[in-house]
TrEMBL record:
The Cux N-terminal domain, residue ranges: 2-46
Gene Ontology molecular function terms on file: DNA-binding transcription factor activity, RNA polymerase II-specific; RNA polymerase II transcription regulatory region sequence-specific DNA binding
Source domain of life: Eukaryota
Protein name according to UniProt: Cut like homeobox 2
Species per Swiss-Prot/TrEMBL record: Chinchilla lanigera
Keywords: Coiled coil
GO cellular component entries: nucleus
Length: 61
């Protein structure tokens, strides 16, 4: 009577452990790719730069 419940519980624990390991491996894979990516701040500053030099029209006539 207890054996089938225990086996089901054990199977669920094994499935959750496998899922956890796969999720951690996927996260680590994405993290490794992101850590090697260049810093986007300089490119964002260059892209933002020309707009800062433009003079906006004044409507206070």
């Amino acid at each position: 009577m207890v054996a089938p419940v225990l086996k089901s519980f054990q199977a669920e624990v094994v499935a959750l452990s496998k899922r956890s390991q796969e999720a951690e491996a996927a996260f680590l894979s994405v993290y490794k790719q992101l850590i090697e990516a260049p810093d986007p701040v300089p490119a964002c500053e260059v892209a933002r730069g020309p707009d800062d030099r433009l003079q906006h029209p004044s409507f206070d006539s």
